[in-house]
Amino acid sequence: MIYTGELAALGTVLCWTLGSQFFEAAGKRAGSLSINLVRLMIAFFLFCITLAVTRGEIIPTDFPPEAWKWLIISGLIGFSFGDMCLFAAFVEIGPRVSMLIMTLAAPLTALIGWAFLEETYSPRQWLGVTVTLVGVSWVVLKRNGNNQKSKNSKLWDRDITVRGILLATGGAVGQAVGYIFSKVGMMNGGSYLDPFASTQIRSIGGIIGFTVLFFILRWWPKVLQAVRDIPAMGFTAAGAFFGPYLGVSLSLLALHYTTTGVASTIMSIIPVTLIPFAIFLHKERVNIHGFLGAFVAIGGVLMLIN
Prior knowledge:
By secondary structure, the protein is an all-alpha fold. 77% of the residues lie in helices and 1% in strands. It has helices at residues 4-30, 32-54, 65-93, 95-101, 105-116, 123-141, 162-186, 195-217, 220-227, 230-257, 260-267, 270-280, 288-302, and strands at 187-188, 191-192. It has a two-stranded antiparallel sheet with strand order 1-2. A hairpin with a 2-residue loop joins strand 1 and strand 2 (191-192). Helix 2 (32-54) packs across helix 9 (220-227) and helix 3 crosses helix 8. Residues 143-156 have low confidence and may be disordered.
């Protein structure tokens, strides 16, 4: 099918839009750090079931060692570092602004690909990088002077903190670097390895990263406390299905049929798909700068397409 890659990327947008809502709800109840490990473990077992049915084995033992190495590294960077930052940003500044800043992942991916994979980009694409940065900066820096609750409305602007901006930016860096390593790890001669099995290996890398971190921080009592929170686990399970299981797998599937730039571009429309949730679910006031900044940023990312 001609548009298989584009449809996979659009499916990723839908999954990540829904998943971000579940993870924010779970993170508020049980803490974003604990939820990160639990959702990766849930996703890992979902992959085991999927691979047992589709491949007759619970892990891809036929993958070459080089693929395992790069995919594990991708999981450490993308899941452990990137998602830890992003989920903390969800709680700090909300999914809409967090995911808007995450649009930086597309131009960052282009920059990393240019620097380390010898990818080439046209002047129009570099202009797109600049426009994207302008759009993101517009939303982040153009604050509404009154963040207090309006007397005539139940809507309000969520406070945008420096800590939240830095966390979301860390998430963008982690996603960009992790996506590049995923592409390297999935390359197998002239074809790509199975995206679901590849994502399972990435989840193993993420689990390893969080396990080491939790031993250092002595975080395991908080993980056990989170597991006992039944509503939080329900949100986490739903988020695990839409996020690291289905959403990330679809994002890697998109690499089979389209370029990294096109896939990243389509995925960057998430800030727009999150606006209805911000208005109707989180009761945020999305002012004109929020709308215009989102579309400017996404317009810039669209310019990355040849």
